[in-house]
Amino acid sequence: MKKKNKQITYSEIKKRLEIAFEKGSEKKLASFTHFLQNHSNGASQRYKEPASEYLIDQIDKFYIAEEPDFQYLLPIHWDVPFPPPEKPKFTFIDLFAGIGGFRIAFQGTGGKCVFSSEWDSNAQRTYEANFGEFPFGDITQICEDQIPGHEILLAGFPCQPFSIAGVSKKNSLGRKHGFADETQGTLFYDIVRILKARRPKAFLLENVKNLKSHDNGRTFKIISEALKEIGYIIFDQIIDARHYVPQHRERIFIAGFNREYFNNSIVFKFPEPPKGETRVCDILVKNPDPRYTLTDHLWSYLQNYAKKHKEIGNGFGFGLANLNGITRTLSARYYKDGSEILIPQGKTKNPRRLTPEECRALMGYPDNFKIRNTGVSDTQLYRQFGNSVVMPVVAAVAKKMIAFINKNTEAKKQSEESDLVDA
Questions:
Q1: Residue 81 — left, alpha, or beta (φ > 0 → left; ψ -120 to 50 → alpha)?
Q2: Long-range contacts of the stretch 327-332 (C-beta < 8 A, 24+)
Q3: 388: Cβ contacts below 8 Å, ≥ 6 apart
Q4: Above 50 in pLDDT, residue 168?
């Protein structure tokens, strides 16, 4: 009888190989973890060679001897908070991944991530701790041919102005250009080039609310036309997260569907917000560490700053949260003084900042989302949550999108089959 191989955990592999986040080895580490995640699908071949190089480097570096009971045999047991689904229903990629809000949402609907990219090293650490995958770095340095085929592209990309310099040069040379040309030099351009090369069925993009009005609407017009030009039908909506978490946070979502799979007449509707109220008091921890309470000096400064601006008619100032209501928008600068969201602690005690655990809840991440003992400081955690998507909002959109994709791709297939019969 053939001996059954022992199933190894991801934590055992990390411990045995002494995996560390060392500068210069990020790409090989990303390839290694991506290979482990995708061992049973075709995407693994794109990661196999650099993954093997990383494994050999680690074995040589730490003088690891090969042992019969420890051969990194696949599949492994994913002892991470959010393991990959065993029987995925579709595939997706996670660009500008941050700490994985998109990934949790789409994994929750049965999706399998086959590629992730995030340039910030601290966000990469948090991502790896929760998914067992180290994201690749700067997307501008990754060729679209290196990215596996996928069905849905996900990205929360930065808002940037689009230069007309490249277009003006093409005009002077008498060359034709499209809207996609106007996006060169921006991070949105990388989304366009990947969509053109890989042709996924759909995509979901997220950005700040002001994207629609940025540069007098020109930015959003270029984005919309560039996506339409490469064959996608697009829909957008601004969604306020206050219906999902106790935070006023408006973000624009852009959903796109490939004309190769969908009829031009489709109409996608974003989810209706859930009924009911959310309250700040529901996310607060009991007995928070005193270090989150503002010092007398900082509290005095914030009060004087607010008073000065109020006297000259400006609205700048701190935000003392209504515990039975919602907060202002959590920003990436929250680590500086926490002024936009302060928690009152009675008349005899200075207010305090939110703890990272409370920021996690304010962004809708589950309690098992790991933020401690990952080598990431409170400062970086504040930045990460301030830059993140509100996970339950994305989850609601994901659920609608997957149902819509399944229904309408089948409808188009039946329509085409009917046309063949009629012919």
A1: alpha
A2: 327/246, 327/247, 327/248, 327/280, 327/362, 328/247, 328/248, 329/247, 329/248, 329/249, 329/250, 330/247, 330/249, 330/354, 330/359, 330/362, 330/363, 330/385, 330/386, 331/386, 332/382, 332/383, 332/386, 332/387
A3: 98, 99, 101, 363, 365
A4: no
Which residue type occupies 110?
Answer: G
**Phi and psi angles of residue 173, each rounded to the nearest 5 degrees, phi first:** -90, 0
Question: How many angstroms separate the Cα of 70 from the Cα of each of 30, 60, 66, 219?
Answer: 21, 16, 7, 53
Going by C-beta distance under 8 Å and a sequence separation of 6 or more, which residues neighbour residue 47?
31, 32, 34, 35, 38
User: CA 323, CA 235: separation in Å to the nearest integer?
Assistant: 35
359 is catalytic: no
Q: Quick check: 277 pLDDT over 50? A: yes
Distance CA 204, CA 257 (A): 9
Strands 250-258 and 202-208, by their bridges, are antiparallel
The residue assigned the tokens 């997260």 is 241
The closest of 410, 386, 367, 375 to 81, measured between CA atoms, is: 367
Reported as a pLDDT band with limits 50, 70 and 90, residue 49 is: confident
**Statement: the pTM of the whole predicted model exceeds 0.85:** yes
Q: For residue 152, give the 3-state DSSP assignment.
A: strand
Q: Which residues pair with 254 in a beta bridge?
A: 205, 236
pLDDT in tens, 78-105: 999 999 999 999 999 999 999 999 999 9
Q: What residues pair up with 179 in beta bridges, in sequence order? A: none
Q: Which residues contact 216 (CB under 8 A, 6 or more apart)?
A: none
Please tell me which residue in 113, 143, 159, 359 is annotated as part of the active site: 159
pLDDT at 260: 95
Strand, coil or helix: 208: strand
If you average pLDDT over residues 158-184, what whole number do you get? 53
Confidence of residue 418 (pLDDT cuts 50, 70, 90): low
Report the number of secondary-structure helices (H) and strands (E) in the chain.
13, 6
pLDDT of residue 182: 59
Percentage of the chain lying above the pLDDT 70 cut = 84
Query: Strand, coil or helix: what is 193?
Result: helix
Token couple for 327: 């907060």
